[in-house]
Each structure stands twice: as C-alpha cells, then as structure tokens.
Write a structure and sequence with these properties.
Elements (H helix, E strand, L loop, with lengths): L1 E10 L2 E11 L4 E5 L6 H9 L6 E6 L2 E2 L5 H7 L1 E4 L11 H11 L9 H11 L16 H13 L5 E5 L7 H17 L3 E5 L3 H7 L2 E6 L2 E7 L5 H7 L3
Parallel strand pairs: 3-8, 3-9, 6-7, 7-8
Antiparallel strand pairs: 1-2, 1-4, 4-5, 9-10
Amino acid sequence: MLRLDNLNVYYGESHILRNISVEVGPGQVVCLMGRNGVGKTTLLKTIMGLLHSRTGRIMFEGVDISQDSPDHRVRRGLAYVPQGREIFPHLSVRENLHLGFEAAQGSVNGRSEQAALEEVFTLFPKLTVLLDRPGGVLSGGEQQQLAIGRALLAKPKLLLLDEPTEGIQPSIVEQIEQVIEGFKTERQFAILLVEQYMEFAARLADTYVIMAKGAVVASGRAADLTEEQVKRHLVV
C-alpha cells in the first residue's frame, strides 16, 4: 500500500532523513519507534506532503505521490493526526468535525455528514456531549478523541498517528487502544503509528521500524522485537 524508497529530507543543508525505505501493507499496523529527535515526525510530515524529500519516492497504491499536495494525498486516502492534535481551539467540537468532513469531501463517496459523524460517535461517544464546547477547553484525552475522529471522517486507507498517547490519562489511552484494536481486527485501513509507550505499541503493532539519527536501523515483526534492541535504540 505505502512504500517509501530511499527518502532523503533536509532542513536547509541539515540532512534529517537518510535513505529511508519503509513499507506498510493493507490493513497493517506498523509502529515507528526511536528516541526523540531521530526524525519520526519529520517522516510522517513528509508522507503527508507537509515537507518534501530532496530525493527518493513515496508510492501509495502503486502511484508515485511524491509531488502531490497534502490535500490531494488526503483525497487519495491518507489521514494524519499530528503530535499535539492541532485542533482549532476557538471552534466548537461540532465545528471542528464539520471542517474535517468538508476537507475530506473528495474521498467520502457521497456519505452524508450525519452518517459520517455517527460512525465517529460510535467510536468516541463522549464527543456527543461535548459538541458545543470549544476545542481549546477540552482535556488532552478529549482533544485526541476529537483529532482522531476528525481524521476518520475522510474514510482513510492509511492513518498516520503521531504519539496518540502523549499526555493522556490512562483511561483514555485504554479507550484509544480499544479503538485502534478494532481497526486492526477489521483491517479497514492501515496505520503507521509513532509511539514511545512500548507496551501500547507492542500490543497493537504487526511490525516495527526503529529509527536512529535519521535512518532506519532495525525492522521486523513486532513479536520479534528484542530487549537488546529496545535497550540499544529506545531506552533513554
């Protein structure tokens, strides 16, 4: 489904991502791991077209999308929940969701907005009682539910999640895990997950990719991730 071929990304003359090659198959949950600052978020932004690679290709469903704009990538089936959620704090939950639906119009195959919202509310029922609250007053966990729900309105084929458990209370982490586990069971779409919470990642991922100093240094089945690899590349 997604194949990255030898991506090289620079900030100015600083070489941030070095010859990154990664594959995500249909319905897979792939966990992207590594210490802070190794380039994980940069990679997700590059996949979404928010940053551009100097060399290499991004292939999605057999098509080179390296030159596509972010909105075209959304229409092709990519969705992104960034670190920090990036909801609109002065807009209500309802308005945030409406904007998400409007932005995804090219990819929702004629669904009504109400039908799309009902699917989100089934996954995150608490949002139904928060609809008129400004996004900025929600807790971190509520904002994360809103951000994921908004991304799902596009009916993505691949969902990019950047540290969805960061700063969230355990009960909400558990709920988000259950939602992702449901996606994994149904294999409706693939997920590329950046996650520092090892137990969370280990329970959900099919495969893992470890980055260090802007490069991929290890990858494989999640069940085969060793304690030695964790100590060498992940433990601070």
